[in-house]
Amino acid sequence: MVDIQISDGTRTGVVTFYGDEALEPCDFSVTGDFSVESIMNLFWLITATAEGTGQGIYPINGPMCAPYEMLRVFELTAVTATGVPEAWQEEMEAELQQSYEEFESDSVS
């Protein structure tokens, strides 16, 4: 179980992930001024597709999501996340670097 404090400047809250892997989907809960629905709206904002489903690059299924994906959405929507374990940060940086390298080498299909 990992608690991450989040804030967008006006709202604050805590996301609790019930898993120990940054890249693997797990259940999560939200307390404070945020809700599962408000976090899903952030995903929709970032991943809005032609269908408006919000199920693009960063999948979320109700209260289940890989921490990496949610933390990327927070970063892209100016939501500050603190308390991210160092091991997760290292995993996420490696994943992001690999994505950049694949993009640059045209390996992305």
Task: Describe the protein in words.
This protein has 109 residues and is an alpha+beta fold. It is built from 3 helices and 5 strands. A 5-stranded antiparallel β-sheet has the order 4-3-2-1-5, covered by helices on one side. A hairpin with a 4-residue loop joins strand 1 and strand 2. Helix 1 packs across helix 2. The radius of gyration is 14 Å and the shape is globular. The model has no long low-confidence stretch (mean pLDDT 84).
What labels describe this entry?
109 residues; alpha+beta; 5-stranded antiparallel beta sheet; 3 helices; 5 strands; 38% helix; globular
Q: Given the helix and strand composition, which structural class is it?
A: alpha+beta
Mean pLDDT over all positions: 84
Per the principal axes of the C-alpha atoms, what is the gross shape? Answer: globular
Cα-to-Cα separation, first versus last residue:
34 Å
Radius of gyration: 14 Å
Give the helix tally: 3
| SSE pattern | EEEHEHEH
How many strand segments?
A: 5
Largest sheet: 5 strands, antiparallel
Strand content: 15-25%
* Low-confidence region ranges: none
Widest sheet: strand ordering = 4-3-2-1-5
Give the SSE layout.
Blueprint: E1 2-7, E2 12-17, E3 26-32, H1 36-47, E4 64-65, H2 67-76, E5 80-82, H3 86-104
Antiparallel strand pairs: 1-2, 1-5, 2-3, 3-4
